[in-house]
Design brief:
The complex is a heterodimer. In chain A, 28% of the residues lie in helices and 24% in strands. Chain A is built from 18 helices and 29 strands. Chain A has an eight-stranded mixed β-sheet with strand order 3-5-1-12-9-10-11-20, with helices on both faces. In chain A, strands 7-15-14-13-8 form a five-stranded mixed β-sheet. A four-stranded mixed β-sheet of chain A has the order 16-27-28-29, with helices on both faces. In chain B, α10 runs antiparallel to α11 and α17 crosses α18. Classes of the chains: A alpha+beta, B alpha+beta.
Chain lengths: 757, 478
Amino acid sequence: MSEAVDRVGSNYPHESAMGHVTGTARYIDDLPLPADTLHIATAYAAETCGNVLSVDVSKASVMPGVVDILTWQDVPGDNDIGPVFEGDKLLAQGAVVFHGQPVVAVAARSFRQAQQAAGCVEIQVAPSSSIQTIAGAIEADSTLLPARDWGNPDTVVGGAHTIEGVLEIGGQEHFYLESQAALAIPDDDGGILIHSSTQHPDDVQHLVAKVLDLPLHMITVQCQRMGGGFGGKETQAAPLACMTALFAKRNRCAVKYRMPRRDDMIQTGKRHPMQWCYKLSCDKAGVLKQGDIRLEANCGHSPDLSSGIVDRALYHATNCYAFESVRLRAEHRRLNQVSHTAFRGFGGPQGMLGMEAAMDEIAYALAQDPLDVRLKNLYRPGADRTPYGQQVEGFLLPDIMHTLADQCDYRSRQIAVDEFNHAHTYLRKGLALTPVQFGISFTTTHLNQAAAVVLIYRDGTIQVNHGGTEMGQGLHTKIKQVVAQAFGLPLSAIRHTATRTDKVPNASATAASSGSDLNGMAALDACQQLQHRLTQFAQAQLGAPENIQFANGALTGAGFSISFVELVQAAYLGRVSLLANGFYATPDIHFDKEKGWGKPFYYFAYGAAASEVVIDIRTGAYRFLRTDILHDVGASLNPAIDIGQIEGGFIQGLGWLTSEELSWDDAGRITSNSPANYKIPTSDMCPDEFNVRLFDRPNHAQTIHRSKAVGEPPLMLAISAWSALRQAAAWGGNRFPRLSVPATPEAVYWAVQEARR
Amino acid sequence: MPCDAQNQLLINNQPVTLTEAQMTQSLLQVLREDLGLVGTKEGCASGDCGACTVVAATPGQGPHSLNSCIAPAGSFIGGSVLTVEGVGQPGNPHPVQQAMIECHGAQCGFCTPGFVMSMVAGQIARNGVPCGTLTEASTEISGNLCRCTGYRPILDAALLSAPAPSDQFNWLNTVDSNQTSTDRYLNPSNQDELVDALAHFRSEDRWIIVAGATDAWLEWSQRYQDFAGVLDLSRLAQLQGIERHGQQLAVGAGTSHEALLGFFTKQYPVADIAAVLHRFGSPQVRARGTIGGNIGNASPIADWPPMLLVLDAQLVLLNSQGKTRRVALSDFYLGYRETVRAADEVITQIEFDLPDPQTFRASKISKRTEDDISSVLLACQIVLDKDGAIKTLRLAMGGVAATPVRLQQVEDALVGQPLATLHPNQIEDLCDVLDGQIQPISDVRASAQYRMAMAKSLFAAMLIEAAYPQTREDLHHV
């Protein structure tokens, strides 16, 4: 690779790309196993809810290959593995609270034997009534956590125009291509090494220790890579790891648990379905006055991460728009469903979607172009404080939206859309441009810390390791670029090793889009310590001048140059430490969650998308014709990887908003339990014309090389396509129709019917 | 390279002998767990995600991609299987793999080997030439799910890949077959062997009949049913092929959907049949799934039966005594997943009228355009007389009752209607005749109300377009 390729800001391919394309990159299910490895399957009750009357494993225990069977009573430590609050049982304890909840775990000699034996476990439950809808939870006053009441409680909604309603927002299955997996291998001193497909090795370590009643130092968790995460492996990976560790400890052998896709879709949490209930007002020109927004979140049966997720839905419930006064409330509804969990955007998408839906309704009511309504309501001087107290700095949306509108010919295409619709009997086009403003930082302030280790070897090669995990987002590639640039070395001189809790302890989850922000700065800190030591050594011992720099594989200054290898070897002989621990804590953030006031975010990431769709009003079927995106990643660490995140996030958001429909039957059993009946996008859903550009401007905040986080924000760019579908359904009708989420062809059809009434 | 020993196949050009037990496992399991070829991934074990895609050539079929998770390994005896490990290695990647790296086509990488194999299959089919158009590229990867990239860079890779070396895959076509049935894996290659096999076949003892196995094998992969034995129809040459006799077609029950898609696209173009088949499953499923299987498993939402009901299809069935009988498709279905087929019978042939490309219509509703199961499928043939009145009408639907249904009462009620003199709104009103004639239900794919609305809406669209051909508007041609 040439030097130009190895710098921050270049399009270096994913560090595992060759392994990916040749099938040699290993995931947990690919690891060679010790000969005596056991495999796990779980059994659950036919009922959704009720006290467990009996568990009969007599048939299962005599099935071929069965070695061990567990219920909650066999857990030596704590059976509760809730990540923040209690409520998530490793194995059902006394009662089942959702359909599919594991009651019994079976370990057998093979995957199939374990599954076949689990199918023979007989579980008797005294069925009790269950809550399956948000409306049912409201009626039963079923909540998990205290309600939030932020913003101005004295807000009275009034003005020239008011709009109100309820938007039903569906959840989403993560459908990472690699299902959940863990492999535990006992150490010879009573400790356990666990390979876990997890975004949060520290949490897995913590929960395994809790379940086994062992101190943390006896548990080591490793994650080489995940086959996708998207938030679904932030907390949901832990139960598998705990079960493997439990069986490994009891049977003194290696234990693997790889969830079949069907079990994964039944037993692991999803994006929170929510209701966005609103009453908003604006003046005659369409400028927002007051808002009263209430979110009803379907959290499932336990808190899991719902507190933070619902908070983030509130942070983003006004997106990028200024109100005179707004009240933000949220309820954490308990339903008898799997516990809904983190999913790319972490509540933000649900909050933002409601606001964007409302902007379209205002535009329709005032017969204005929706883009104009959006533009006139953006934060502006004097109206640039969020409802939760944060002063918005470095606000890029006016610039981004105007630039995008020009680049994609928004105005003239709106006219063309109108002409097309006049000229057709059954086909309708829609075009919408929507913005995204996404707050970057963990909103739980103490999580905004990271550590990294940089190790220089005597041949001048370097290993880097940090607490972040690789799930395809290219984090490790970006970190390698940061380290390579720091020492002026080619990328080939840097090796990134698997994330392990025995290299970096106490690491936060790789979540909240924070991976490169936090770990990049920690790695840079380690590099700077080593640079400092090496520079001082060179100046003291090798006669290096005052101004010297690491570049082109050497340390050079006026009249001085020493290759990196020679420098390192000399430093080793000079007894200079070639190992450094870097650390980073995001500065300048604080938040009072009770009052809902402070500065939760270090900065915001911005973007906007314009999408054009066509629908057939006879069926509701549709196609995505064109999408243009202009997105802000600050000064990109790797434009190709960032564009990949933007495109992938957009399509994933498009799936959430259109084809991906979770469904449960009346008894509370999930019926979208297979890719045969839950449809994530295929390549055909990629817009016919898909233009993605980076809004190339360095972050005003001091981030790693002035880049910005990119993991989550682009998902919400897909709101433009949902909005365009609704515009198309509304065209020529008598009213602006509701459009539920997901907007399946069926939903679009009903929206057309509503518009025509 | 020929393979001589019994129960052998070539995997990445190396001979491998399968045990009888292995023959009744999925090909994926044998690859991953017995042979250590873990580059092929399991994403869903139901043939929906494509992570397990490999390329194979069998004695009955040329090179094609398939989902190895839902294919019994025994089906490939005497054939060749190519996995990602055989395509290229680090240091010596295939042009498709190189293109995937250069286009940033992999993020998490788990789906990537499957995409690579779909693209390699496409190159083999085009004698080493990469995709020429975006549509071709999109079709080629339509059976592979990626959750990370949004597909654009993968489509780029399919378009920008250099051609494969021309001789790279020749061996896929040069396999000798000498497989004979074993006690637990019956693999007949002619009618006598088939009749013998049917006599052996005991459905009550956990035996299964498979052709492409694309649906049947879910019993093994999703419900963990181990089979006592398998009767595999895929080697029967006389079950394959499409013959035209005047205005009649005779199609072997083992003919793949892909072969029929080719026939109705190239040899005898019928736009709506091609459009439905293009959305039938994925390339991997179309390559192995058969028309006989689609009819025989009696799903109310199968795509072929409504089209074949309109074409007055007749089925030929063969039993364990070697006797054949003919059954009209309209008499074949008894109820939900229930047919007149006896346990020792197989469908061998389907005969039907050659559809008139001008008047034959079919339309499919599904949540996702590609690789999704129909919520409603409507097929009809509308012939107008010189005055524009309905002269003959044949109408059938899937997804609106416990079985696919031919709607003769509706046909009778509408014959003679002066379509050309009616306003489109009046034609829409005519479709209320469907009330009471169909009984759609609500399920995970659609509500009963929507299915009813779609039955009427699709039928109305076809009637209106028959009366006013110039008014045709198609979402896919904007």
